[in-house]
Each structure stands twice: as C-alpha cells, then as structure tokens.
Design a protein that fits this description.
This protein has eleven helices and nine strands. The chain is α/β, with parallel strands linked by helices. The chain has two domains: 8-204, 2-enoyl-CoA Hydratase, Chain A, domain 1, CATH 3.90.226.10; 208-254.
C-alpha cells in the first residue's frame, strides 16, 4: 500500500484484515483524512488475495460520530473542497464497501451517527453492543440524508420508518437498529469483540467466489427485473461450479463432513 495512513489503522492477521477508524478523541468523526485513509485501506484489502474477511471498527468508545462538523465549517468558510470530500466518501468508501468481493463485518459500539450509520448500513454483517446509540442526524444540521442511508435503510425496514428516522434525526437503540435491519445482531457490551471473532471464523470457512457473487446479487436485487436477475444468478452460479471450493463443498457434503474452503 502506497502512502502512510494517519487516521485509520490497517492490521492484518492471516486472512483477516482489521480496519480501525482512529480519531477516538472526537468519537471517530469522519474528516477528509479519514475518508482518504478508509479508501486506501479498502483498496489494500481488495488487492490482497490473502485477505478473506474484513472487520471495520472504531478506536476508543465509539464506532463513528459521523461527519466532522468542524471541517464542515471550514468548507463553509471556503477552506478545502467539500465536493471532493463528498465524492470520495460516497464512491471511494460506501460504494467500495458494497462492491469489494469480501465480507465486511462491522463492530459497533458507542455512537454511530449520520455517516457512521452509513458505514454500518454499508457493511455486510454488523454486530452492535447493547449500549450502542444510533441517529440519522443529517436533518439536525440542515442536510438531507447521504452516505447511502436513503438507499440502504429502506431495504431493511418500511419506507415510513426510514422517513421517520431520517426526518426526525432521533436517537435510537441497538435493539431498534436490529428491528430496522441496520445491524445483524446485538450482544452484551462485554461480548462484542468475542462475538465478532466468532463471526469472522464463520466467514473464514465460506467459499470466496460464492460470497463475492452473493454481494453482487444483493446489490442489484431491487433494481433487476425477474428474468434479468434469474439469468445473472444462474450465470454467477455456473461460474462458481468451476472453482475448487465448489468441488470441495460437494465432496464434503457427500462424505458427510465439514467443508474446508480455501
């Protein structure tokens, strides 16, 4: 990976990459530095064939308190480039998270506000501590939703609930986030890291190509027509039959043992 990341830590342990937003003094608020570093970390994980699972987390007490409002004020004063910030956050981070052919597991604690919710929603599997607090806070600073929340949140709950969350900006609990489909599961605070490790182990023993194909299918399931989607689904499945993991999976099933995927 080229360059040095200041605000995000990327650590690798075998087939697992851990991406940590590291501005704990401001609850991991997202400024231009964080955006650039997140993009670089995702690129690194995408290109590294040795990495199979990605964990996304925040340093300190929170996952992410959202956009750095002090930087927004600088933008308003003519300092920096808000368009570059917005484009990189949306297309080099959120879109990249959805398209990277590897599962991203979010470890969620403390605050997930605004763009923090966007990062959680864009992950593939999100585990929240019971005490975690969420808010689609854009409306409270005069903004309409961004970071993909208006696209992703209505896919997990009703249109009316999505409108309520994003039009009021109210805070909601981890249990509510579970009900709304924003997180996958909620665990006691002292079980968060342990549960993340357990889920990582699950995905370390899932076939790479099949997981990558699944992400592709889920990304278009609401936009494809049925014939189009069935053809795409079949094409990806046929391609998966050419992999070693497919042969291993079928063989293991016939031999009544657990498959050992690459």
């Amino acid at each position: 990976m080229s360059g040095v990341m200041e605000f995000v830590k990327l650590e690798k342990d075998g087939k697992v990459a851990e991406i940590t937003i590291s501005r704990p003094e401001v609850h991991n608020a997202i400024d231009m530095g964080v955006v650039r570093d997140l993009s670089a970390a995702l690129d690194d994980c995408w290109k590294d064939d040795g990495i199979k699972v990605i964990v996304l987390k925040g340093a300190g007490k929170s996952f992410s308190s959202g956009a750095d409002l002090k930087q927004f004020m600088k933008f308003a004063a003519g300092e920096g480039n808000p368009v570059e910030y917005g484009l990189k956050l949306h297309f080099d981070v959120i879109k990249k998270m959805r398209e990277i052919p590897k599962p991203i597991i979010a470890e969620v604690k403390g605050y997930s506000i605004g763009a923090g919710v966007g990062l959680v929603a864009a992950s593939d599997y999100a585990i929240a501590a019971e005490s975690a607090v969420f808010s689609c806070g854009y409306i409270l600073i005069g903004l309409s939703p961004d970071t993909g929340t208006s696209f992703l949140i209505p896919r997990g709950c009703s249109m009316k609930r999505a409108f309520e969350l994003m039009s009021t900006g109210r805070r909601f609990s981890a249990r509510e986030a579970l009900d709304y489909g924003i997180v996958t599961e909620v665990v006691p605070d002292d079980r968060l890291e342990e549960r993340v490790r357990e889920v990582v182990e699950i995905y370390l023993n899932r076939p790479r190509v099949a997981i990558a194909n699944l992400k592709k299918l889920l990304n278009v399931t609401h936009s494809n027509k049925i014939d189009e989607h069935l053809a795409y689904e079949l094409n990806l499945a046929m391609m998966a039959t050419l992999t070693k993991d497919f042969i291993e999976g079928v063989t293991a099933m016939l031999e009544k043992r657990e498959a050992k995927f690459e």
